[in-house]
Amino acid sequence: VYKNESEASREVALQIANIIREKQSENKMAVLGLATGATPVEVYANLVRMHREEGLSFQNVITFNLDEYYPMQPDARQSYVYFMDENLFNHIDIKRENIHIPDGTLKKEEIPDFCLDYENKISTVGGLDLQILGIGRTGHIGFNEPGSAPNSGTRLVTLDDLTRRDAARDFGGKENVPVKAITMGVGTIFKARKIILMAWSKKKAPIIKKTVEGEISGKVPATYLQLSENVNFVLDKDAASELT
Ligand code: F6R
């Protein structure tokens, strides 16, 4: 638990940089699972700063994003492609071909093959060294909403009404928020060698309490993380304020 979002984000960015540098020293690729939303913004800002000021290179980094709305055009302001470019990729030296984000432009019948391929691509490069996560107020990780199975893989899902309400501001009204998304599954996330879940502010305190102290249940998919040996929760004081 950290004093505030800034201190916590700096720590998470440091951990990411350490993985990248360690892999560099072994001449290997670092495979990172990335998240979007408000939560990781300062983490990415720190990574950009380290790239500019400390020469942190992303030449040996491969990334897989957790999710994308469906349908979604990559150049739309609300797309996660746009978000990642603006907050991270446009400001670092990552190779474009090493970036992977679920494709919101697919035809519906193309989605199952795309999802299998996404899983295969992660396996082929040796699996995720680290997956970073935010958490939704429904208890979703990625867009694994209540009802998601612990062994779920990358797939098309329906967004919870609360998730769509929380996204309404970005879309100028809930009615404009896509009903569906393509997301890595809980099972995909679990295969990462290390998982960091971040949460800031009082708004997240009730779901953090349920996730950490509540019964493990598909009703709150993030509670599955209680079963992982490789997960760290990085919280600010406010998000941790309801923990006993
Ligand atoms: C984003 C994602 C979501 C968000 C969650 C929290 O890629 O997978 O699970 O992490 O909805 O969103 P923010 O950070 O905006 O509160």
Automatic annotation (TrEMBL):
Chain ranges of the Glucosamine/galactosamine-6-phosphate isomerase domain = 4-227
Write the protein's name.
Glucosamine-6-phosphate deaminase
The full protein's residues present here are 19 to 262 of 639
The organism's taxonomy opens as:
Bacteria, Pseudomonadati, Bacteroidota, Flavobacteriia, Flavobacteriales
Q: Which domain of life is it from?
A: Bacteria
